[in-house]
């Protein structure tokens, strides 16, 4: 019995490494500077990030925001941090983009039921469904 359990756990561990490779973990660690720019975790230690880490006024401003994305948006107006802010925003924006794709798939499943299978032009119906979802999901 113990042999079967060990084999099962070994297969589970191999599957975990397949679905969650170490390279993705390294990428997450590398990008931790976006969540808290004052930490030394990850990043390539570019000059702008090093300057930001010692800028006490920006550290105080960072603490006032509930989400790091809001902080990076404010840095777009500061020329010395603009490139760094654009990098952070580009990575933050990836998640909502995939979220909207999932919302579109869910809307399509709800629209194309057996009773509505005769609908040929889905563009206007999908547009209304997605705009409605965006309106309902926004704060």
From TrEMBL:
Identification of the protein by name: SCAN domain-containing protein 3
Originating organism: Petrolisthes cinctipes
């Amino acid at each position: 019995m113990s042999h079967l359990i060990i084999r099962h756990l070994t297969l589970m561990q191999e599957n975990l490494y397949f679905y969650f490779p170490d390279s993705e973990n390294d990428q997450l660690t590398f990008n931790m500077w976006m969540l808290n720019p004052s930490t030394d975790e990850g990043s390539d230690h570019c000059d702008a990030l090093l300057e930001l880490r010692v800028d006490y006024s920006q550290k105080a401003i960072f603490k006032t925001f509930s989400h790091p994305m809001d902080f990076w948006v404010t840095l777009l107006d500061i020329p010395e941090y603009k490139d760094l802010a654009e990098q952070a925003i580009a990575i933050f924006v990836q998640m909502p983009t995939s979220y909207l794709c999932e919302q579109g798939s869910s809307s399509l499943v709800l629209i194309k039921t057996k009773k509505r299978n005769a609908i040929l032009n889905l563009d206007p119906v999908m547009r209304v469904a997605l705009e409605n979802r965006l309106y309902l999901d926004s704060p």
